[in-house]
Amino acid sequence: MTVVTDKERAGHADMMVRTTRGDFILAKPRNAILPWHKTGYVYIKREGNDGTASASLGGRTPPTTIGNR
Question: The whole model's pTM is what?
């Protein structure tokens, strides 16, 4: 799960999946699956790789800690 703010500055959590083709977000308000860098979101944090902690993404758009492979 990834915590984001959208263009209206509303915060919410969206599902992120990492693949060999890049990182994708299930953008709930649009009911679409998009590459992370095409969402327009500001990324706050995401669930850590081991599922027990969150990794800060620094509130950046696009986030430098999420790769676009």
Answer: 0.67
- 3-state SS class at 15: strand
Q: Which residue has the tokens 């696009």?
A: 62
Taking only the tens of pLDDT, the chain with its 69 residues reads: 888 888 888 888 888 888 888 889 987 767 889 998 888 888 888 886 666 666 666 665 544 444 443
In a domain, 38, yes or no: yes
In a domain, 68, yes or no: no
Please check whether residue 68 is in contact with residue 35, taking contact to mean a CB–CB distance below 8 angstroms: yes
Cα separation of 14 and 29, whole Å?
10
Residue 69 falls inside a structural domain = no
